[in-house]
Amino acid sequence: MKNLFSKLNTKNWSIIIASFIVLLFSAGFVTYETTKKSVTLSLEGKEKVMKTHAATVQELLEEADISLQSKDYLLPAKDTGITDNLKVVWKSAKQVKLLTVNEEKTFWTTAITVDEFLAEQNIEINEFDHVKPKSDAALKTGMNVVVNKAFPLTFNDGGVVKEVWSTSTTVADFLKQQGITLTELDRVEPGLENTVSENGIVNVIRVEKVTDVVEEPLSFAVVTQKDENLDKGSEKVLTPGQEGLVSREYEVTKENGQEVSRVVLNETVLKDKVDQVVAVGAKEITALASRGSESGREMYVTATAYTASCSGCSGITATGVNLHANPGAKVIAVDPRVIPLGSKVYVEGYGYAVAADTGGAIKGNKIDVFISSKQAAYQWGRKTVKIKVLD
Question: Which strands form 244-255's sheet, in the order they lie side by side?
Answer without folding.
Answer: 207-218, 244-255, 258-271
